[in-house]
């Protein structure tokens, strides 16, 4: 297995291709750079950020602080709007020129539609939603991701370079390298005008990020009316927490901007209180890492009871008000 | 309109058992089914055909499971194409999308390609975007509403922070989410009609691809079920007040509430 980039030689030893990081989400980019820095050390390579957009040049220098040895910049009005077609082509052109070992892409929805298109362009392998990344003894990237409904950990190994991987928030911890400077490489790429264009974009109502909540009171299909959420909000407030939900309440009823689950948010609060949630495996995949799981459900056979610490078989419309009463009493 | 739907015959993940001694999933003999989101793609294709006329073709790579293919046809697809080959054993998304691209080219011209946002088993969400790239067409992903207006496809998609409306000229590829529609359940009549619909079976050589061109770039090395260490204290038959007491007690014990 050749570890080395074909193009670069220095001082008789071959240079290993860089570890790149790209995300249109700045927070995630900072985290990825931390991961790129770590992986690149193990590989004996350097780390680099890739910035594509309009007016992105000015933020390039500060990426050294987050671990980038180098920053590739494509700053052009042609990239003012995110486009998987144009961005994949731009990053592919850079990758063909500089031959990185890996391209780590932030696993936002945009990142997840970009990375496979980029990988196809480069005839490269891709692993999505990686929760762990390691370099094995053979110098290959091995990733762990959740497969088979989100409840089986799959270890996948890359058989050739470049490695393209998407990584969600909170897999790598953001670190700050106070004194670190980075080299800025300004690149010109020319791409065709993308065929798909955004004609309308509306901001969703923004709530506080669920990922940071200490306690989550989560609503499932057992909650019958939207007004009933007030009761769960009151409970959440008493516990200094927030209200989340399973997929149908968000995707089908539109009561919440986002849901917890395999295709939604992944959360790990200290306490997860599932109210009227049956516990489909896709939902479990989003809350598995919670410290304590409490379930309230009227169906004794609901699968949630197999994955909880404390399960109450009962009607949430009776148990939750009783719980609110008790907590209020305690506060007094 | 000529619409191609990519439909995977996937492992029914809700029925996969885990071997308790090794904590590994038992995949041999696990039941198969048409991947959930792909059914949404099939339904959407049929609705577009019902509105605008035309034909809907399905394409499947891998397991030639005839029951699943018949179900696809019974939903209303006009003709099914299946690519299976002895050499297609270890497939990653790179291999799958290359085979699909070759098959779609062989099937003739098309206006729209529809895919589910991901498969239920692999859940990589890669095939749609990869296929769009290989076919050289725009991609519109995570669509929860799809309409064809003249020579354009328009979709609504929900991202983390915004809801977008995106349009592209045909031909284009659209991946759909579960909320785009409710897939129909075929009637007995549909099932009977489906038995007369054509299924075309192709091997790789029929598509002019050699197995050497289809080397996977990623291989699965290990599958492992995480150990779920939960206390599993189940309380049944309590009055609401008693249940509330028990929950508060648990919250105190776990340090969520302070005494």
Rg of chain B to the nearest angstrom?
A: 22 Å
Say what the CATH topology of the largest domain in chain B is. Rossmann fold
Please report which band the strand proportion of chain B falls in: under 5%, 5-15%, 15-25%, 25-35%, 35-45% or over 45%. Answer: 25-35%
CATH second-level architecture of the largest domain in chain A = 3-Layer(aba) Sandwich
Q: What structural category characterises the helix and strand content of chain A?
A: alpha/beta
Low-confidence runs of at least 5 consecutive residues of chain B: none
Query: Which structural class fits the helix and strand makeup of chain B?
Result: alpha/beta
- The tally of structural domains of chain B comes to 2
| Assembly category | heterodimer
- Taking pLDDT < 50 over at least 5 consecutive residues as the criterion, the unreliable ranges of chain A are 1-12
What gap, in angstroms, lies between the N and C termini of chain A? 68 Å
Mean pLDDT of chain B, rounded to whole units?
A: 95
The CATH topology of the largest domain in chain A is what? Rossmann fold
Number of helices of chain A: 7
Biggest sheet descriptor of chain B = 9 strands, mixed
Shape of chain B: globular
How big is the Rg of chain A?
23 Å
Task: List the topology elements.
The complex is a heterodimer of chains A (332) and B (259).
Chain A: E1 9-10, E2 13-14, E3 19-22, H1 26-43, E4 47-53, E5 70-75, H2 84-98, E6 102-106, H3 109-121, E7 125-127, E8 130-135, E9 141-147, E10 152-158, E11 163-167, E12 183-186, E13 197-203, E14 215-219, H4 229-238, E15 242-245, H5 247-252, E16 271-275, H6 281-287, E17 292-297, E18 310-313, H7 316-331
Parallel strand pairs in A: 3-4, 3-6, 4-5, 5-12, 6-11, 7-11, 14-15, 14-16, 16-17, 17-18
Antiparallel strand pairs in A: 1-2, 8-9, 9-10
Chain B: E1 2-6, E2 9-11, E3 17-19, E4 24-26, E5 32-34, H1 36-52, E6 55-61, H2 66-75, E7 79-83, H3 93-106, E8 112-116, H4 127-135, E9 139-149, E10 152-158, E11 162-169, E12 172-176, H5 188-194, E13 199-202, E14 218-224, E15 233-235, H6 240-253
Parallel strand pairs in B: 1-6, 1-8, 6-7, 7-13, 8-12, 9-12
Antiparallel strand pairs in B: 2-5, 3-4, 9-10, 10-11
């Amino acid at each position: 297995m050749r570890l080395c980039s074909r193009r670069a030689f220095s001082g008789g030893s071959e240079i290993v291709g860089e570890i790149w990081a790209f995300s249109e989400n700045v927070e995630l980019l900072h985290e990825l750079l931390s991961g790129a820095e770590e992986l690149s050390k193990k590989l004996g390579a350097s780390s680099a950020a890739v910035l594509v957009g309009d007016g992105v040049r000015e933020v390039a220098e500060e990426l050294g602080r987050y671990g980038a040895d180098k920053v590739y910049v494509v700053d052009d009005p042609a990239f003012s709007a995110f486009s998987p077609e144009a961005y994949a082509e731009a990053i592919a052109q850079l990758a063909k020129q500089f031959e990185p070992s890996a391209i780590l892409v932030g696993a936002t929805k945009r990142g997840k539609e970009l990375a496979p298109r980029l990988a196809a362009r480069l005839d490269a392998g891709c692993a999505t939603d990686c929760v762990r990344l390691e370099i094995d003894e053979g110098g290959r990237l091995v990733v762990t991701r959740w497969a088979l409904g989100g409840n089986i950990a799959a270890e996948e190994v890359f058989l050739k370079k470049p490695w393209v991987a998407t990584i969600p928030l909170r897999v790598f911890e953001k670190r700050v390298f106070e004194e670190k400077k980075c080299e800025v490489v300004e690149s010109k790429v020319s791409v065709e005008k993308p065929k798909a264009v955004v004609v309308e974009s509306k901001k969703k109502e923004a709530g506080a990020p669920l990922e940071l909540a200490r306690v989550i009171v989560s609503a499932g299909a057992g909650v019958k009316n939207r007004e009933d959420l007030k009761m769960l909000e009151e409970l959440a407030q008493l516990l200094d927490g927030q209200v989340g939900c399973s997929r149908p309440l968000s995707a089908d009823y539109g009561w919440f901007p986002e849901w917890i689950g395999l295709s939604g948010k992944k959360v790990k609060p200290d306490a997860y209180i599932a109210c009227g949630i049956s516990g489909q495996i896709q939902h479990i995949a989003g809350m598995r890492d919670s410290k304590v799981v409490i379930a309230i459900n009227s169906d004794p056979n609901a699968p949630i009871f197999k994955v909880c610490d404390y399960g109450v078989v009962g009607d949430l419309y009776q148990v939750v008000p009783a719980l609110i009463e008790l907590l209020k009493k305690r506060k007094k | 309109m000529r619409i191609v739907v990519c439909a995977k015959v996937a492992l029914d993940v809700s029925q996969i058992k885990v071997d308790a001694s090794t904590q590994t999933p038992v995949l041999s003999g696990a039941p198969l089914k048409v991947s959930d989101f792909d059914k949404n793609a099939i339904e959407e294709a049929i609705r577009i055909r019902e509105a605008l006329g035309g034909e809907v073709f399905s394409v499947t790579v891998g397991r030639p499971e005839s029951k699943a293919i018949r179900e696809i046809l019974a939903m209303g697809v006009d003709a099914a194409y299946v690519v299976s080959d002895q050499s297609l054993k270890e497939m990653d998304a790179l291999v799958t999308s290359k085979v699909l691209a070759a098959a779609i080219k062989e099937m003739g011209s098309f206006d729209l390609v529809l895919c589910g946002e991901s498969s239920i088993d692999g859940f990589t969400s890669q095939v749609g975007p990869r296929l769009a790239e290989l076919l050289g067409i725009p991609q519109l992903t995570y669509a929860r509403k799809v309409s064809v207006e003249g020579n354009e496809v328009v979709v609504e998609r929900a991202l983390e922070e915004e809801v977008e409306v995106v349009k592209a000229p045909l031909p284009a590829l659209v991946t759909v989410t579960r909320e785009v529609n409710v897939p129909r359940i075929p009637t007995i009549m549909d099932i009977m009609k489906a038995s007369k619909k054509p299924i075309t079976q192709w091997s790789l050589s029929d598509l002019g691809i050699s197995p050497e061109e289809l080397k996977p770039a990623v291989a699965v090395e290990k599958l492992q079920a995480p150990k779920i260490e939960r206390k599993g204290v189940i309380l049944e038959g309590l009055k609401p007040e008693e249940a509330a007491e028990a929950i508060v007690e648990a919250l105190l014990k776990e340090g969520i509430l302070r005494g």
